[in-house]
Amino acid sequence: MKIKTEKEIAKKEFYRILAHKANFTLQDTYIFWQAVEEIFAEAITNRVRLSLPGFGNLDYYRGKDRIMRSLQTGEIVPVKGSERVTFKLSVSLRDIIRPDKVKKPWLEKTEEIEIYSDKK
Q1: CA dist., res. 42 & res. 85, Å (int)
Q2: Which of 35, 33, 16 shows the shortest CA–CA distance to 25?
Q3: What is the pLDDT of residue 95?
Q4: pLDDT, tens digit (0-9, with 9 covering 90-100), for 2-44
């Protein structure tokens, strides 16, 4: 099965691709993905880091509370820190997406190799 090269895969198309790759029925795939969404939601609500090896990390981040001054009145106003969820791709997925940024340790340090020949 080949994935279309469109910029977006719709939910039904995603279920179909996942079912084909995992050899599941569409109903099993739907149940599986609902369970995954529940795990994500639970991790976000409990403000827990969710680490998915080979895929990435889902983190909850809360910024610091700040104090600002109102420009109109000049009074000091407390501002709550922003809350957001971040997702960071794993190194293996980043290497697939950006192959030009892959570090190639075998190219960084080169050693000269002398070739000897027997001349008579």
Answers
A1: 13
A2: 16
A3: 83
A4: 666 667 778 888 889 989 998 999 999 999 999 999 998 998 8
Residues 8-17 have pLDDT tens digits of 778 888 889 9
80 in the same domain as 52: yes
Range of the domain at 42: 1-46
Inside any domain, residue 119: no
**Closest C-alpha to 81, from 54, 61, 108:** 61
* Same domain, residue pair 58 and 92: yes
Same domain, 1 and 41: yes
